[in-house]
Write a structure and sequence with these properties.
The protein has helices spanning 2-30, 50-53, 63-83, 88-106, 116-133, 136-149, 165-181, 193-199, 240-248. With 249 residues, it is mainly alpha-helical.
Amino acid sequence: MFQLKITRISFGIALSLVALMWAVFAIEYALDLDWYKYGIYPRTAKGLIGIITSPFLHSTRDFAHIINNSVPTLILTWMMFYHYRTIAAQAFVFIYLFTGATIWLFAHNGYHIGMSGVIYGMTSFLITSGFLRRNMRVAAVSLVVVFLYGSTVWGIFPNQPGVSWEAHAFGFIGGIMIALFYRKNGPQPKKLMYEIEEDLGIEPEEEYWKEGYQPKQQEAAPKIIINYQIVPEKPKVETEESNEVKKKN
C-alpha cells in the first residue's frame, strides 16, 4: 500500500510538470504570443526572469522541441521522486536554479528556452547517485536512464546550431554536484560484513585484503574410530526340571 502511494505521488508530480509545459505551449501557440522573450538572455536584467520561466517555454514553430522534452521529463522526474523521495525536491530545485543561473552568467547571447537543461541534470543525478550507493535497485534505474536518454551526453558539446549546449552542459554538471552533495542521504548501499564489523569496533580475525595474506589451514577434525564387537550367544543352562522333562520324553 505504501509503495503504491509513493508511485502515485511521484508519477503525479511528473505528470503535472509535463502538463504545465504543454499548457504554456498551448496558450502561446493558440494566441500567437512571443513568450520566448521570457527566456534566459545572458547577462541582462530582462533575462533574469528566464531562470524561473525558461524551462516551461518551447518553440511554437517546431512541435518536436516540446515532444522531445516531454517524454524524458516524465520518466526522469518520476524515477527521481520515486527512488529519492527524501531528497528529490531539494535536488530538483537545485538543478533547476543552478542550470538557469549558470546559463545567465556564462552562455552565449540569445534567448535560451526549454526543459532540456533540467533533463540533463536529472539524468546525471540519477546515474551518479546509483553508482555512489552501490544499490542494485538504484543502479538499475541508472542503467535504464542511460539506455533511454544516455545519448544526450553528446549534447553538452557545441555540435548543433541553434541548440543551447551550455544549458545541457551546466545541467549535467549541476546533477553531478547535487548527487555528490546528497551522497549520504536517501537510499544507502548495503554494507558488507567487514564494514559492519569496523563500525562496531570489531577487529577482523583475518585481514584477507592485505598483500601476502595466506589463509589459515583449518585443523583436521579428530578421526572417530568405531569398533564393532560380536558377542557370542550364551549357552543355555539346563536345569533339573528340563532334565526331568527330557527323561520323560
